[in-house]
Amino acid sequence: MANTAQARKRARQSVARNMHNSSLRSMLRTSIKRVRAAIASGDKAAASEAFKKSMSVIDSVADKKIIHKNKAARQKSRLNAAIKALA
Predict the structure, then answer these.
(1) What pLDDT band is residue 1 in, cutting at 50, 70 and 90?
(2) How many domains does the structure of the chain reveal?
(3) What is the pLDDT of residue 2?
(4) Is 22's pLDDT higher than 90?
(5) Which parts of this chain are annotated as the region Disordered (predicted)?
(6) Cβ–Cβ < 8 Å for 13, 42
(7) Which of 53, 49, 50, 38 lies closest to 86, judged by CA?
(8) What is the DSSP string of 11-80?
C-alpha cells in the first residue's frame, strides 16, 4: 500500500487513467468488430462506411499512445485489404 501522499495520489491517478484507457481500448475493439461484421455480411458499401468511421477511432487511440502507431497502421491496412477483397 502507498505510504506517502505522493504515492497515494499516483495510485489514484493510475486508477483513473486505467479506466479511461480501458474505455478507449474498448471503443477501438468495438469499431473494428463493426467493420469485420460488415465485411462478413458481404456488404461492401456498409463495410466501407464502417471503415471510414473506424479509421478516426484507430488513429485517435494511436495518437494517445494506447496502441502503437504500427499496430494502428497494420489494423487499418488489413481491414482495407479485406474490404477490397469483397469485389
Answers:
(1) confident
(2) 1
(3) 78
(4) yes
(5) 1-25
(6) no
(7) 38
(8) HHHHHHHHHHHHHHHHHHHHHHHHHHHHHHHT-HHHHHHHHHHHHHHHHHHHHTTSS-HHHHHHHHHHHH
Fill in the amino acid letter for 87: A
Contacts of 28 (CB under 8 A, 6+ apart): 57, 58, 61, 66, 67
- What is the separation, in whole angstroms, between the first and last Cα of the chain? 58
Structural domain range at position 22:
5-84
pTM of structure = 0.86
67 Rama sector, left if φ>0, alpha if ψ -120 to 50, beta otherwise = beta
Pick from 58, 50, 60, 47: nearest CA to 87: 47
pLDDT in the model for residue 46: 95
